[in-house]
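Per your request, structure below.
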């Protein structure tokens, strides 16, 4: 097995760095700015993500030629499409599996013989619309449940102290891209303003990647909530892990998700999760979640108040159920066993 990645350092003998033009780079954005208005999308130059994937594919192709890799697995839709076209032209021999985590259209998905949906919810939903092949499957992402695990109260206080967070007050954590659309951080700001009226000691921590509208969102939150909110931008995975282990409740504001890694990690760390009532989110958190209609204003603030004002033991019980679900469903040994079985199936076709 070889893991090809577009940036970073080689960390073991199974990794190969195939440097690409990353979507966040100035050169990438400049090329897209020039080419996109001229129909650049036709040639992979319509967006930073398209260009990043095109460059990665071009530099990856020589590694794949010669038949050394009979099976190729990626969750990047543009890359998967390039690989399928290359195989159709006889440039490579490897069969491609698309790990479907980006909500592609039915038409686009039907171009692939092998698709790994990340939840059975998504697989069945597509199937009811006639978007289905018998060679498709549903296998979730995995989380290292030995690393993403709960800590005791003393360890939690130490982590908070190190991060400069209040040691004794309730802490609600959101891990998501800091943006308005989809993750709805702006809507959560209004909910946390309302919560401050009931629980002024509560701290809301938001950790996520920087987006074009992040700075405006952060300013808005700091103006409206003040010391009751903290933002951590572009943290390392180890730093995010510490935030999970420091929190009391995990809050996700999106109304629809494919298979959010952040929720899986939070559940694995034993956090009670406040979520929109959506089948995918119920599949992931199970009895470790509290489900409400987040499309209605005031529901988040009300639910958090109920959770935090009630007995602390209840939050711990719900969190323990989240942990149990994560270990049983997303631990490496469970997911990798399913993945290897699917690899064997694909190679036999």
């Amino acid at each position: 097995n070889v893991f090809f990645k577009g940036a970073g350092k080689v960390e073991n003998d199974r990794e190969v760095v195939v440097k690409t033009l990353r979507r966040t780079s100035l050169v990438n954005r400049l090329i897209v700015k020039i080419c996109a208005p001229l129909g650049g999308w036709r040639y992979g130059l319509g967006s930073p993500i398209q260009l990043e994937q095109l460059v990665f594919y071009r530099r990856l192709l020589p590694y794949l030629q010669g038949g050394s890799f009979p099976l190729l697995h990626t969750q990047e839709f543009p890359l998967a499409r390039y690989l399928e076209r290359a195989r159709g032209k006889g440039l490579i021999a490897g069969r491609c599996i698309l790990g479907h985590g980006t909500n592609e259209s039915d038409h686009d998905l039907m171009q692939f013989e092998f698709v790994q949906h990340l939840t059975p919810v998504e697989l069945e939903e597509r199937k009811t619309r006639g978007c289905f092949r018998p060679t498709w499957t549903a296998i979730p992402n995995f989380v290292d449940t030995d690393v993403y695990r709960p800590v005791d109260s003393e360890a939690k206080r130490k982590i908070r102290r190190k991060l400069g967070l209040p040691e004794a007050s309730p802490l609600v954590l959101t891990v998501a891209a800091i943006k308005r659309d989809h993750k709805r951080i702006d809507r959560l700001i209004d909910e946390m303003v309302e919560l401050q009226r009931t629980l002024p000691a509560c701290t809301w921590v938001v950790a996520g990647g920087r987006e074009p509208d992040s700075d405006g969102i952060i300013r808005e939150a700091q103006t409206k909530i003040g010391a009751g909110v903290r933002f951590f931008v572009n943290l390392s995975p180890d730093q995010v892990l510490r935030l999970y282990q420091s929190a009391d409740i995990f809050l996700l504001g999106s109304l629809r998700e494919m298979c959010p890694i952040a929720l899986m990690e939070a559940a694995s760390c034993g956090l009670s999760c406040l979520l929109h009532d959506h089948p995918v989110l119920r599949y992931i958190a199970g009895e470790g979640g509290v489900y409400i209609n987040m499309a209605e204003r005031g529901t988040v603030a009300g639910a958090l108040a109920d959770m935090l004002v009630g007995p602390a033991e209840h939050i711990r019980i719900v969190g323990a159920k989240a942990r149990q679900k994560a270990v049983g469903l997303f631990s490496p040994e469970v997911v990798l066993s399913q993945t290897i079985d699917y690899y064997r199936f694909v190679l036999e076709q």
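The two ends are 20 Å apart (CA to CA).

Regards,
D.
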